[in-house]
Structures are given as C-alpha cells and as structure tokens.
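Is magnesium ion placement plausible here? Inputs below.
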Amino acid sequence: MRAEGAVAGEFILDIQAMTKRFGGVTAVNNCSIRVPRNIVAGLIGPNGSGKTTLFNLLTGLLRSDGGDYFYKGEPMVGLTPHEIFNRGISRTFQIIRVFREMTALENLVAVSRDGDLGGVRRRALELLDFVTLLRLKDEYAGNLSYGQQKLLEFVRALMSDPEVLLLDEPAAGVNRTLLNTLLDRIRQLRGQGKSILIVEHDMKVVMNHCEKIFVLDYGELIAEGLPEEIQRNEQVIEAYFGHK
Ligand SMILES: Nc1ncnc2c1ncn2[C@@H]1O[C@H](COP(=O)(O)OP(=O)(O)O)[C@@H](O)[C@H]1O
Ligand SMILES: [Mg+2]
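Reply from A.M.:
I modeled the complex. Tokens:
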C-alpha cells in the first residue's frame, strides 16, 4: 500500500502515527510528520522530547510500537537499517561515531560496500574537499578537532549519495568557521534536490536555515510551520520555557 499524497511526490517522508515506548516512557507518541521533498527542515524540541528516537525509528535502528512510515510512497517499517540506507536515507549521530584509529579518508572508504575501490576513493576525496578537509585526508580521525570530526561524519553520510539526510545535532560544539561551512554545504545539497532533516538546538541555525520546522514535546508533534510561525507559537514557547 502506498501512502496517500506521496504518490505525487510531494512528501519524501510520510510518518504516520509512529510510537515508541521504553518501559513506562513513551519516547515517540503517535507522531505524524510529512517532510516535503527537497527541503531543509528542522526537528526541534526540549531534551528528551524524542528527536533522536524518531531518527532511530526512521533508520531502522529501533522497531516502532505502532504507526507507519513511507519514503517516496514506499512502506519502510520492518526494513533493516542496511535496507533503509540502501534505499537512500542516511544519517549522522548526535554522539560522533567516527573511527578514531582510521584516517579521515579511510573513514569514508570504509562505509562503502561498492566493489569499485577506485571510484569509492575518488568520491571520498571529493567529499573531503567538499568540506575543506582534503589536506587532512591522511590524518587519524581521532586527531581532528571536534568540529572537523563532525564534518567528517557529515560527509561520511553522503558517501552513499542519499536522497534524504538526517542530521542529529550537527552544529553542536562546532566553531563558527566550520559551522558556516556546514550550513553552506547543506544549502548546496538542497540545491542538488536532496531533502535534509536537522535536529538542532541552536535556534539561530534553525530559524535562519530551515524552511519548515517540526516541534516535538514529550514525543508528540505539538507544532509545525514556517520559522516565523514557530517562533511565536504559544505552545512551543511553553514547551521550551514552561517546563519545570
Ligand atoms: N534506549 C533507550 N532506553 C530507554 N529510554 C530511552 C532510550 N532512548 C531514549 N530514551 C528515553 O526516551 C526519551 C526521548 O529520548 P531522545 O529520543 O534521546 O530525546 P531527544 O533526542 O529529543 O533529546 C527520553 O525520555 C529518553 O530518556
Ligand atoms: Mg537527541
């Protein structure tokens, strides 16, 4: 069964009433989100509101307790992380997962299951260049600055040339120069037709760089809209400042 509306290609991700519980905690609660195609969208909400859990559901790392989700109209629930990745959904992690004992270049080459090593290496070098890390290609990832490691993880997620990119707090702890590089590259990917969903705490980044924003609170979608709509949404303000 294909998702309604997605057939026309309007929504790249169509999340329908997804739920995830951990014991007594409902981390994601009956959450429905439609992400338009070719957009930079933000996913925000207080700590513990379920943002990372939702990414884990979308990438198959966690099995949902209910609900459905469609990518380009195709049902995705039940697929393995590998299958989801191969379909074109890639991500970064809130806590960096680069291989510290591998060089920057090796980190990128390692994710590819493609047989053509020459092609993989070329793509890896291009991507390192894309985020100004080419001169550090032979440096151990563990020796890179925190911000450089985050950029490395960002381009590692691009090795598969995904159509959807899920970024979990990509800007946290990244200095201004590298942050500007990251934001510029996100814009470029948007220009290439990709859809990017960003979890981010830095409100300046969210408000200035996201075209549409989804707000979670206690695992529920409490608001969605344009940045200026979200900024003056009472429920959002309450979620951020009203919590004890
Ligand atoms: N693996 C887990 N086991 C138990 N509880 C979890 C697990 N992952 C997340 N949670 C809980 O689910 C809720 C949502 O967490 P999370 O998705 O990490 O929020 P966010 O990314 O918005 O900060 C929190 O209450 C958190 O403690
Ligand atoms: Mg998180």
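Short version: The chain has a mean pLDDT of 93.
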